[in-house]
Structure formats: structure tokens, C-alpha cells
Amino acid sequence: MTREEAQKQINRLITEIRRHAHRYYVLDQPEISDAEYDSLLRRLTELEERFPELRSPASPSSQIGGGMVSASFSPIAHPTPLYSLDNAFDQGEIVAFAERVCRGLGVEAPLQYALEYKIDGLSVNLLYQDGRLVWGATRGNGRVGEEVTQNLLTVHGIPQQLSGAPARLEVRGEVFMPRQVFLELNRRREEAGEAPFKNPRNAAAGAVRQKDPRITAQRKLSSYFYGVGAGLSDLGVATQLELLDRLHDLGFPVEPHRSKALGAAGVADAYQRLLAQRQELPFEADGITVKLNDLAGQQRLGFTAKAPRWAIAYKFPAEEKETRIESVDFQVGRTGRITPVANLAPVGLDGTTVSRVTLHNKAFIEELDAREGDLALLHKSGGIIPEILRIVKEKRSGAEKPIVFPSRCPECGAELVEDGKIHRCPNPLCPAKAFQQLRHWASRRAMDVQGLGDKLIEQLLETRLVKDAADLYQLSKEDLAELERMGEKSAENLLVQLQESKNRGLERSLFGLGIPQVGEALARTLARRFGSIEALMKASREELEAVPDVGPVTAGDIKRALADERMQSLIGRLQKAGVSFESRQTQPTEQPLAGLTIVLTGELSRPRAEVKEELENLGAKVAGSVSRKTSYVVAGPGAGSKLKKARELGVPLIDEEKLRRLLTGERLETESAE
Hints:
The chain is of the alpha+beta class. The chain has 5 domains: 3-62, Helix hairpin bin (Helix Hairpins, Orthogonal Bundle), CATH 1.10.287; 75-315, DNA ligase/mRNA capping enzyme (D-amino Acid Aminotransferase, Chain A, domain 1), CATH 3.30.470; 321-394 and 414-424, CATH 2.40.50.140; 431-576, DNA polymerase, domain 1 (Orthogonal Bundle), CATH 1.10.150; 597-663, 3-Layer(aba) Sandwich (Rossmann fold). The protein is 37% helix and 20% strand. A 5-stranded mixed β-sheet has the order 2-11-10-3-9. A 5-stranded antiparallel β-sheet has the order 14-13-12-16-17, with no helix packed on it. Strands 5-4-7-8 form a 4-stranded antiparallel β-sheet. Helix 1 runs antiparallel to helix 2 and helix 17 crosses helix 18 (520-530). It starts with a helix and ends in an 11-residue tail after the last helix.
């Protein structure tokens, strides 16, 4: 390759990388996968190493975090720079890294490294002064970030106040969206006709960059912290792992799988172990971080213009497979939304067999130019959701067939209506909608009607004994006994279950109605706030938006759903049948336990969910882990690690007798853990 050819390629790569970096870091709307972006960057680096005279200081290969800062937020200078990590993609690169570290320190023996999962989230920097959070910012270009303090205050795990910290402390970490939160968010977005997020990282980044902190709070973000800038020398720690323990003691969540390894060989063994556990993680990780454990050694090695010389990211392989689209089904959701789903030739991907993948909507199919019989390149978006990256058009045979989106509902034949990119069946009596609605109503977390399974629901619809949830409460033993595999005893049991379900209360019945955006947690909050379905139906948008976790979009969805004549008719018929739409426990005007954080551990004489609900109704926060912020730990027989942690931190312990006093609203005297 000539110098001129190299210059052309470098210019093209820089332009392409900058465009993708802008979409990734600023817009949170990536067009390519992380693996494809890394490939472009590696190609640029290789060319610049081959032709060093062509490397520019402004090259993306020399910049931190894509070198991007959004103009939508106030810029804030970091007291010390936040560096990116160089990447390794195979064991040979880890061996080379370990050799560079040894040479830099002038030693030959294998060195010890601290390992953590590399969380795929948004890097943030927090500054504390005299133990108080002064500001929080994104990494930005490593020297200047975006000030997002109010949004970060809504993130789980970020303390506002520290005890025993240096006078000035700069703490670095990663804000991320847990996998289950991400999956539920995308489900709600698709149900509402909104484009799903491509991966948890973009969902988290988009949430942190919201102008309204209430929207950030609704996204249920979490965080882990891994490093310190200013104030590190005042913490009294000598190793990276000691630093993580110190951060944990100060109240910061840290990556729980952290470990150590000796030399490149030890890193290789740990990498395979951590890679095998990747799919079981509650968060998305795109690799592991490998850091020299000795902090004095880190200081001696220092940094390049972009990255520390003492750390590297060992990336997990991005698996992509080709498979064929054999056919396409069109599914009808419980709100009538039509979702095309591609049936694939089964293919193994990231440890699971994938045979179906959503095509989202008609516009997505047209954008892909997907056809039945096409070869599709598949990966798992964010390591979680199977997704088609692109159609392999160069391998078409000519026998492929266009995917024809239906104009009528595939279940009932009703003409579909368009709602933006979404097609919906408008028929309220559509069998597909009825099946999903009945299934949801009877589910364990809603009305918990045991014995009302899929097969029975299908029979009830086919025989036209029911068309919606209200009809369930008109069934007789004679109606049920005539159904296939439904004897007299089974019929009696189901009727008992239906009778018992009438008294589940507003929280469960509201969730069972399947109102858009109203999941189990929000149904509980609304039930406590309004107390009855009538009060909720009369609530204004402003009153709804004043409820925690309810933003303008959610408030609008709730108002529209409850104003619908068919919904009002269904609620009326359910009430006439005896179904309660009154809250069993409305939120008291006074909350005597407000401000307390309580952890339950060990065996209790009552169901833990029941105790948790009572505590929350009195204003307490019930947490899943013990920290210095915990007010009390309720320890029953068999308590384990949480009891041990409470004793280590000196958190007060109480038994069930004191718990009963607490539930009467009595404040207990603080006692040290014994």
C-alpha cells in the first residue's frame, strides 16, 4: 500500500468513526454494533502504526470516549482526566500487555491483576467535598463532561453524603440498566408503538441525558464504581482490590464478581470462567477489565494520551451467525398490536438456540428489505435479545419471496388501523386479544386464578362462554362441566378460585386490566395513592403526574385507557359481579416510618412479602442489601451474610417482637449490632 492510498483510507475511517461516535456517545442511537465499531478503530490504529507520519493528534485513536460532549448540558471540567481502556481481543494481546507492564516496572516475575466485569453502561464521575456530593457528570471527552447531577441522584447506589471520606474525593463508575429492567422497558415501548432501545447501554445513556429527572427515575438505573481520581492517596489503600473494598465501605456499590489473577495465564483462566457466567449476569458485560493490582505500580506506569498503561479491557467475542428466514408469523398482542415474527432455521448463538426473532413492524421489514428465504446475519443485541443485523443480499438465489404485511387482522379479519409505525386490530372482541387479556387477568401477579390455564381459556373462547374477564364471573358449574377434561370437582375448584379473586383489591385488579404502562409496581403505587378505581378515573393529568414514577406519557396513557367506553363498561361489569376495585391498604396521610431503610433476613413467622408491604405502607424503604444507610436489620432464624454484614457495619438488629412494635409506628431506640 502506498502512502497516498493509506492517507485516503485513514481519512475515510476517521470520517466514518466520528460519525458513528457522534451517534453512539451523543445521540445514543448507534447504527452499528460495538464489535463493528471496534473493528473500524482497530483498522485505523493498524494503518497509523504502519504509517506513523500520517497520525494526527485529533485522530479518534488518540481520543477518550469518542471525544464527544453534548451541547445539551452544561460542560464541567474533571479535576483529573478520565481515560478510556485499550482493548484486547485474544490471549496473545493479554500476554503482550503483561509483558509491557513487566518491562515498564523492570520486573520479570508474573504480577497480580485485579479483574472485574466490564459493565456496558455510561461512565460517570462524582465529586464529593467534605463528604457531600457537589456534582456528577458524564465522562464526555475525558477532560470535560456533561453535568447531570439531578439525574444521577435518581440512580440506585449513588450516595449523596459520605462518612469518613477524604475532604475532596472524585469517584468514577458506570451507570447501567439491569437486564430485566431493559427487557421490561422495551416491552412497554413496543406495546406503546415506540422504537425499542438497541441495548441496555443506550437505554441507560438516554435515561441519564433526560432533561426531566423524573423520567430518569422511571428507568430504574443501577451503578457500580471502580476508581478514584482526586483523593486516592488519602484513602489509605495499596491495591486496586483494597480500593474497591474501601469504596464499598463508603457506601458505593462495586462489581460483586471482582477477583485477582497472577500473570497472563491466570487472567486467561479467569476470563474463561467469567465468560461462561456471562449469560447469568443481571447486567450486560462486554468483557473484563484487567488492572495491575498494585497502586504504586499503576502510578509508576502512568498513562498514554488515551489510556492507562497498567490496565486493559479483555473483550468478549461478539458472536454473529447467518441463518435463513423460513417464514414469518403475525402475532396479535393483548392491545391488538400486530407484531411480525421471523421463524428461523435454528442456530446456536451465545449459548442458546435461536429459532425466532421479532421484525418489530412493517417499516422495519422494509428498511431491512427482508424476504422469506433470505439469509440473515444474527446477533444478540446487548448480549440479550436476538436481532437481525442485516440481510445477506449478496447470497440471494432469486427464489426469495416478499414478506406481505396483512391489511386485516390474522385472527378475526378486522381491517387493521395504523398508529404511526404500528398496526393494530381495532376489534375489542378479537379472539387473540381476548386470549391474552384473559391470560393476563388470571396470572399469578394479577388475580391469581389457579386452574385457569391456556387450554381452558381457549375452550372458553371457542365455546363463546366468555369474551372478556367480566364473563368469567358469570360461569356456572354446569357451563364448566361440559368442557373437555373438566370434571365436576375441577369446575368447583375453579369457581372457588374465581370467587376468591374478587377480593384481591385495587392493586391486583388494576394490574389485571392491562392498562398500557401500568405494571405491577405502578399499580401498587396508584392503588395506595387513590384508594379506589373511581378516584383514579377522576384524577387529572396533573394529579397523575404528581405520583412517583408517572411522567407525562404514562399519565396520558392511563387517562386515555380509563376514558375508553369499552374499558369503563368492563370495569362496571366486573364491579357488578363483585370484583373489588377498592384498595385494601391506602397510603396513610402520616407515614411514621418515613426515612427508615430496613432489611429483612432469615425466617419470619409471616410471609416476607406481607411484612414488606406493611413497612412500605408506613413509609419505610425495604432494601435488599445492608449498607451504612440501613436503619435496622430484621434478623430471623437462619440469617446469613446480611446478618454478618450488619454486625460488621454496626447496623442495629431487631427481632420480630421489635418489628411488631415498629409496625405500630413506634420509633425504636438505636442499638448497636451485637
